[in-house]
Amino acid sequence: MGPGGGVPDAVGLVREAESLEQNGGPPAGRRMERKNVMAKIHQTAIVEDGARLGADVEVGPYAHVGADVVIGDGVKIAQGAIIDGHTTIGESCQIFPYALIGMKTQDLKYKEGSVSYVEIGPRTVIREFATVHLGTADGERTVIGADCLFMAYCHAAHGCILGDHVICSNSVQLAGDVHIQDYAIIGGCAASHQFCTVGAHSMVGGMSKIRQDFPPYMLGDMVEGSLKVIGPNVVGLTRRGFSREVIHALKEAHRFIYRDGLNRTQALDRVENDVEQFDEIKRLVAFYRNSQRGVA
Length: 296
Description:
Elements: H1 10-22, E1 40-41, E2 46-47, E3 52-53, E4 58-59, E5 64-65, E6 70-71, E7 76-77, E8 82-83, E9 86-89, E10 94-95, E11 100-103, E12 117-120, E13 125-126, E14 131-133, E15 141-144, E16 149-150, E17 155-156, E18 161-162, E19 167-168, E20 173-174, E21 179-180, E22 185-186, E23 191-192, E24 197-198, E25 203-204, E26 209-210, E27 218-223, E28 226-232, H2 234-239, H3 244-259, H4 264-274, H5 279-290
Parallel strand pairs: 1-4, 2-5, 3-6, 4-7, 5-8, 6-9, 7-10, 8-11, 9-12, 10-13, 11-14, 12-15, 13-16, 14-17, 15-18, 16-19, 17-20, 18-21, 19-22, 20-23, 21-24, 22-25, 23-26, 25-27
Antiparallel strand pairs: 27-28
Helix pairs in contact: 3-4
């Protein structure tokens, strides 16, 4: 026990784990499985029967991997992280201390016994204390794609779908069924209403309140209490190799949609008729026309 009879200290727990192994292993509920001899599992970690671990997986002290979890090759799970539920972690992901992945949804519509999923794509990084919850309905998936960075204290609720190369800065909060498309960046402490979509290659500033869909290729920030589209995400687009001609066309589209005093229907007609029809312009117009929540 710790000083004063409190919780056990770390050294005591390590010694207890060593003793359990020498005497035939821990009791039910504290089993420390080593299903793959190539995996490196700390002696205080718990890997439940049924979990599948790939080669070269590392599971740190006091981490917990549930029975229905599948871990890809080369994944590193740090101290105290919990991965549970029907969760699949792609190869070479990094799960930092005390991240919680595959926990039951907080959605009050959830019915006990429903089977839903979390999927994390390869090479994604989940930082400290981030949470990624299971879906609500049978078969619903919560997905974070490949090569994403989900920073400390971020939350992805039931049914969120994040594309590839998405960055969520510290404490981004995503309500249920939010979709974040490829290469989007969400600034720290931003929060999204449920069912919103943030378009590809966009950047939403920190502390933003996302209440409607946000268009692809654009930069947004809070202005007088509302999220406003400032213009194309020029720096991000340039870094990703978009041509000057495409960026110029996006600037023209932004002018028609936000600065020329046209209603949305008129503005989109002008974009389709007066702006060179690069694929990015076609996708931008389609995003506005297909939005179910309206676009910022």
